[in-house]
């Protein structure tokens, strides 16, 4: 924890980073729902260290818990569906002993059923508690890569419009956050038509959730991730009325192109649209220890790595 706090203070702040999104999921010692604590859980005191260093450096800190999708990984169900299996959108799909993709069940990650009458009582307890302890004005709900939604096997969701189901869940979360003056952040992939654009099933939707873009609250912040190509879908989101940040991962050349695009978007946009282009957010999916070991040269980074991308991105920013 101390190493990460120092990294925020000594590396992120001097680079002018103004927002830090931290994926917490169930890695916190929840008091409202202690049954959902993971084994390696942050304490309240540890969170307050993060809050203090971010406040010191005027960095907006935003916690994330994956809602709707990403309720499992590989062959293991996540904490929510382990404790509350009744929330599973696809209970007939068993978790495999050895996970492979593709598979006959179309299993990437499990989802909770957005129409289960009790699921929001549980997840909103977590959302409220994590937002309170982080003293934040925003919350990131994930919502990416949702392949299981409106499944034919679900007694509540079968036959329903997947775009409406997805939009209703986004709006329910956004409305809940709005009661305490908090903003919803989410990934944008499910709002892009993967078929029409040719972007495909990972960075866009192939199961018709994309039409939800016209049904959801315009106050939502869209995190538009593209990792292999600098696709310019941020313009699409801005034209639909959303604020948007572009999100690279491992490829420095892609990240620098995305930076150049974001600058160009702002310069060439109308007065109405320019403020919607919110900048770039470097994504990191390895653990903090692994990232820091590479960043400080304790272990060598791969040719394409999160640390190399991070450094390439800020080297480009430094030229401006």
TrEMBL record:
It holds the Pfam family Glyco_hydro_20. Residues 39-248 form the Glycoside hydrolase family 20 catalytic domain. InterPro entries: GH, Glyco_hydro_20_cat, HEXDC-like. GO terms for biological process: carbohydrate metabolic process. Keywords: Hydrolase. It comes from the Bacteria. Gene3D superfamilies: Glycosidases (3.20.20.80). One of its GO terms (molecular function) is beta-N-acetylhexosaminidase activity. The keyword Transmembrane helix does not apply. Belongs to the glycosyl hydrolase 20 family. This is Glycoside hydrolase family 20 catalytic domain-containing protein. It comes from Parapedobacter pyrenivorans. The lineage of its organism: Bacteria, Pseudomonadati, Bacteroidota, Sphingobacteriia, Sphingobacteriales.
């Amino acid at each position: 924890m101390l190493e990460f706090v120092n990294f925020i203070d000594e590396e992120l702040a001097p680079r002018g980073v103004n927002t830090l999104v931290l994926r917490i999921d169930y890695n916190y010692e929840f008091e409202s729902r202690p049954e959902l604590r993971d084994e390696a859980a942050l304490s309240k005191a540890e969170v307050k260290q993060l809050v203090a260093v971010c406040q010191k450096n005027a960095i907006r800190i935003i916690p994330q818990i994956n809602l709707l999708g990403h309720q499992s990984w590989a062959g293991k169900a996540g904490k929510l569906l382990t404790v509350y299996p009744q929330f599973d959108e696809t209970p007939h799909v068993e978790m495999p002993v050895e996970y492979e993709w593709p598979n006959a069940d179309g299993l990437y990650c499990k989802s909770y059923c957005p129409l289960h009458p009790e699921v929001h009582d549980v997840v909103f307890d977590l959302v409220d508690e994590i937002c309170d302890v982080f003293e934040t004005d925003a919350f990131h709900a994930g919502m990416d890569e949702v392949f299981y939604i409106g499944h034919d096997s679900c007694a509540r969701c079968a036959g329903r419009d997947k775009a409406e189901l997805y939009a209703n869940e986004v709006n329910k979360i956004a409305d809940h956050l709005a009661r305490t003056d908090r903003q919803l952040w989410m990934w944008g992939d499910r709002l892009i038509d993967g078929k029409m654009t040719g972007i495909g099933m990972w960075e866009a939707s192939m199961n018709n959730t994309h039409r939800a873009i016209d049904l959801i609250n315009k106050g939502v912040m869209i995190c538009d991730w593209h990792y292999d190509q600098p696709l310019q879908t941020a313009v699409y989101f801005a034209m639909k009325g959303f604020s948007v940040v572009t999100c690279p991962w491992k490829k420095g050349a892609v990240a620098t192109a995305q930076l150049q695009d974001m600058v160009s978007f702002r310069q060439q946009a109308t007065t109405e649209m320019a403020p919607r282009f919110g900048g770039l957010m470097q994504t990191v999916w390895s653990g903090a220890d692994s990232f820091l070991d590479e960043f400080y040269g304790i272990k060598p980074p791969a040719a394409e790595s999160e640390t190399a991308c991070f450094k390439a991105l800020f080297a480009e920013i430094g030229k401006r």
